Amino acid sequence: MRRYAIALLLAAAPITLDLLPSPRTERNEALAAARVADSGHWIRAAPRAQAATGREGRRRTLAYFAHVTDPHIADEASPARHERLVGRKPMFSGFWRPQEAFILHVLDQTVRAINRERISRLPSAGGPAPLEFALVTGDLADNAQVNEVRWGVRVLDGGRVDPFSGRRISRANPCRAPRAVKRRLNRAVARRRYAGVGAARRYVGRWPGALHRAQRPFVAEGLAVPWFSVRGNHDALPQGFYGPNVVHPRSAPTGCRKVMSRRASAAAAADPWAALRRVLPRATFVPPDPRRRFLRSAAEFRRLHGKADQAHGFGLTPPVQRRRSRGHALYYSFSPRPGVRFIGLDTTVDAGGDAGNIDHPQYLWLSRELRRARKRDELVVVYAHHPLEMMDNPAHDELAGSFDPDPRDSRPVHLGRTGPASLRALLMRN
User: Is the pLDDT score of 7 beyond 60?
Assistant: First the structure.
């Protein structure tokens, strides 16, 4: 029997294991959650997804894996952020979050929680399943900066992590400021002082010094299993939305002026980057850092993942796809065991926008992968950053101009649910 499943994964599921069973609320009453007596877990009863009576004694684990998504590791000292726009429009709601200084530590604790779940708690006919791998489904970074991606990869791989952003001013790392200001900034770097907007917003006032302590280096445990990555819009686009044609100056994140004000005019909300260009020359001084620069391409995102675990999945991209794309194709598939295939997609649109799509070369490749899987009678799990309903971005990558180094034509683009050549239609045909 040929069976297909699509899993566009959007939640850090492993950490919910310690939270169940949850109190009965209106919401999970509607889901008709029924407790599985032998496992301590809940099976959600939904239309057309009823668990057969006695299945807990017959089921066989096909794959036991962890899922992490959307860490949104933010460099809170970066001048190329628009925190003051929070509250002006719904789309600006994610431009600043009170917990940003602590996200690397939270991700490390998430990894440690996953590592404690090395053996599945669910009974299986073949015995409890060992944890095989983890999927990381995008938005590792928050502002498409090199240092944010490096931090995320280091936490997931394990090792020493230095969360501080800012370097001593020098000829190689200049800042146009009075000498007294330069001395003050260099002292702040030596003392590892927090340089974001959180200090003024007083969300952590009950914990004096917490923002400064969050800048100290720590040793991350790292995932104890291989992990495979896909790209999200925040990994490619500043603030997860802005395409390269509107992001000027590109040097903004590495500089030494940052807007700390909470006030934003209607003009700033209408054109955030034009407003940033106007106010940065008069903004607050912060330590500069060349490591904060924006990523230049999809190929650089792949390189920053290193060589472990086949470049955390990106090394599994078929050689012909890598060659034709000049290294910018970030989709791949793998089979952790016979009869099961995982396919990772790149749904990010380099021209801009928080929604996604599938470009035509990737769509053709996916069609071939599904046909081969059907001949092999494999169960297929497709994972990506965007769910189907958020794959409604009509823009093609050629709109990014020189920032689209892939020589292949991305057109026509394929949306999640709309049109005869949508991703949903392709999956349903297979």
Answer: no
